[in-house]
Amino acid sequence: MLSVIESRIVAPIPTPMPRRAFQIADTTPKCTGVRCSTCSMQQICMPRGLSPAEMTRLDSVICSTRMLKRGETLYRAGDDFQSVYPVRTGCFKTVVMHRDGQEQVTGFHLAGDALGLDGVCTDHHSCDAIALEDSVVCIIPFDLLELLCREVKVMQHHVHRLMSGEIVRESGLMMMLGTMTAEQRVAAFLLNLSTRFKARGYSSAEFVLRMTREEIGSYLGLKLETVSRMFSKLQKAGVVDTHGKEIHILDHAGLANL
Questions:
Q1: What are the b/e assignments for 189-223, b being 16+ CB within 10 Å?
Q2: CA–CA separation, 140 vs 122, rounded Å?
Q3: How many CB atoms lie within 10 A of CB 107?
Q4: Which CATH class is domain 181-256?
Q5: What is the pLDDT of residues 95-148, one digit of tens each?
Q6: In the β-sheet with 91-97, what is the strand arrangement from edge to edge?
Q7: In 3-state terms, what secondary structure has residue 203?
Q8: Rounded to an integer, what distance in angstroms lies between the CA atom of residue 58 and that of residue 225?
Q9: Beta carbons within 10 angstroms of residue 20's beta carbon
């Protein structure tokens, strides 16, 4: 109902512009020998049906990883767009800052999701991406990804699907903010996480939230007190059981029918 991407205007430049190194967290990419072909998130963030030769070609592009500690920033709004970052492990939030300095959460990104494509449109990132726990991302230089898409049509189609999925996600979020009650927003948020965890091979009924209630409220357009009140209301209704950040969905159908 809510999950990462955009489109790009390619400037008429004959050769790719040199990309500067980030100066946030640990900025030295390390070729660790980690490959897409051995990653447990392969079926989530990459297309199915790649031939062995195509997978080898993909592995040649995805050769670097970057580790971030909780609270570290992968990139900031205004940074030059250089790469796409599939999340290998961990969880991130993307945020934009209002003029008054308040933070607006625009998304939560789990292992298997792609970060960074917000920069395709203008060649600069439009938000900050911050680790909610110790995390690892793969680094895919976008110019190499473009070349790969020309060679491997399955990959090109996958990137198009990611971009289309982001359009659908954002339109769904707008509809939710404009038409749903506070209770329905929190219910939809939990169901979305449940679906995404299930797709990754985890329990769809029991999981731990990596984000705070305040961050959930920022994403859903609700005050912290309202989010806490809605969690209590759902627990009293017998559809969820909460213990801090631990969530146990007791009644999926009941949660969906709110």
A1: bbbbbbebbeeeeeebbebebbbebebbbbbbbbe
A2: 18
A3: 21
A4: mainly alpha
A5: 999 888 889 999 999 999 999 999 998 999 999 999 999 999 999 999 998 998
A6: 73-75, 128-131, 91-97, 103-110
A7: coil
A8: 46
A9: 10
pLDDT tens figures, 162-202: 888 888 878 888 888 888 999 999 999 999 999 999 999 99
**What tokens does 20 get?**
């500067």
CB atoms within 10 A of CB 121: 13
| 98: Cα separation from own chain's centroid | 21
- Given the candidates 1.10.10.10, 2.60.120.10, 2.160.10.10, 3.40.50.300, the CATH classification of the domain at 30-172 is 2.60.120.10
3-state SS assignment for residue 195: helix
